[in-house]
């Protein structure tokens, strides 16, 4: 029973860590989207493209 409980807790910790990672990645993408929206893609792309 103790081993089963430990396995369940380990799985919960791994899933929690994965959720935090996904949240951070999503947050980063949202920040980048805000930056692109605010400045315009051509200023942030690194390719110096001009807007259409």
What does this protein look like?
Helices cover 81% and strands 0% of the residues. It is mostly helical and 52 residues long. It contains 2 helices and no strands. 0% of the residues are buried. The mean pLDDT is 81.
Helix and strand layout, with pairings?
Blueprint: H1 2-39, H2 41-44
Which consecutive residue ranges, at least 5 long each, have pLDDT under 50?
none
Strand content: under 5%
| Main sheet makeup | none
> Which value, in Å, is the CA radius of gyration?
20 Å
How many individual β-strands?
Answer: 0
The helix/strand order is HH
Alpha-carbon distance between the two ends: 64 Å
Mean pLDDT over the full residue set: 81
- Structural class of the helices, strands and pairings? mainly alpha
Tell me the overall shape.
Answer: rod-shaped
Number of helices: 2
